[in-house]
Design a protein that fits this description.
Blueprint: H1 5-14, E1 24-27, H2 35-46, E2 50-53, H3 65-76, H4 87-103, E3 111-112, H5 124-128, E4 134-137, E5 140-143, E6 148-151, E7 154-155, H6 162-178, E8 186-187, H7 199-207, H8 215-220
Parallel strand pairs: 1-2, 3-4, 7-8
Antiparallel strand pairs: 4-5, 5-6
C-alpha cells in the first residue's frame, strides 16, 4: 500500500537471498499510488518478482455476523474486506483489481490473495469468471483453472497484541509441524512485522529458508 511502501522496499532489500526467489508482493490497487511507486513495481517485475492482487482498499465496509466478529478479533481487525460483500460484489472487486495492473503499465497478475486470506461467499463458478488463475486462502492455494485446492501450511507474524501473539504462535507451530518437502511452508510478512511481538520468530524463520518456489510450482507439487 502507498502508506507502507517504503517499509516494504526496505523489507525486500533485507530479505536473505533464498527468500527473494519467487517472492510474491501483494498490491492493494484502490489507494493513492504515485508514479514512483508504479515504477518501482515495474522494476520488481523486471527482476522476476511476482505481484499479486490484494483486495481494493484493504478495509471492511462493516463487520457483520459472529464469524466476521471473531475473525476481526483474532486475525484481521478491519482488514478482511471480502467479508463485507456479497459473492457478486467480490467478483466485481477481483475483476477491477486485475484490470488496474494493465491500466498502470504493469503485467497483470495470475494470483489473487484476499485481505486476511478471507475469501468470503464467492464460489468456484464466481472465481472462474475472474481473470485470476490462482487464489490464495488460509488453507492453501486454489487453482481456479483446475477447480482444486492445494493444501499448504502457512505462518504469519502480524502480532500487535498479546492475544494475537498467542493465537499466531499456536497457529504457526501447527503449520510448521505439518510442512514437508511435498507441502512447502508459505511465509507471510506484513510491513510492520519486524516491529511486532513475533519479530524474532520471523527472523529465525527466514534464516531457515533454503529455497523459494513459485505459486505454480507449489500447486503442482
Amino acid at each position: 500500500m502507498p502508506a507502507t511502501f517504503q517499509r516494504v522496499v526496505r523489507l525486500v532489500e533485507a530479505l536473505p537471498d533464498p527468500c527473494r526467489e519467487n517472492l510474491l508482493l501483494l498490491v492493494v490497487p484502490g489507494l493513492a499510488w504515485c508514479d514512483s511507486h508504479i515504477e518501482q513495481m515495474r522494476s520488481w517485475q523486471r527482476e522476476g518478482v511476482e505481484l499479486a492482487g490484494h483486495g481494493w482498499v484493504h478495509e471492511v465496509v462493516h463487520i457483520q455476523g459472529a464469524y466476521h466478529r471473531l475473525h476481526s478479533l483474532l486475525i484481521s481487525r478491519r482488514a478482511a474486506e471480502h467479508l463485507s460483500f456479497s459473492a457478486e460484489e467480490i467478483e466485481q472487486l477481483m475483476c477491477a483489481n486485475h484490470a488496474w495492473f494493465g491500466e498502470h503499465g504493469l503485467v497483470p497478475p495470475e494470483t489473487y490473495v484476499p485481505p486476511a486470506w478471507a475469501l468470503g461467499p464467492i464460489d468456484m463458478a464466481g472465481l472462474r469468471r475472474t481473470p485470476f488463475r490462482f487464489v490464495e486462502v488460509t488453507s492453501g492455494i486454489i487453482d481456479v483453472e483446475r477447480g482444486s485446492l492445494r493444501v499448504l501450511p502457512l505462518v504469519g507474524f502480524e502480532a500487535d497484541s498479546t492475544l494475537r501473539r498467542a493465537a499466531l504462535s499456536v497457529f504457526n507451530w501447527m503449520n510448521r509441524v505439518s510442512a514437508t518437502d511435498q507441502r512447502p511452508l508459505r511465509i507471510s510478512i506484513h510491513p510492520f512485522d519486524t516491529d511486532y511481538l513475533l519479530a524474532n520468530s520471523l527472523e529465525r524463520t527466514l534464516l531457515r529458508v533454503s529455497e523459494g518456489i513459485s505459486v505454480d510450482e507449489a500447486t503442482a507439487a
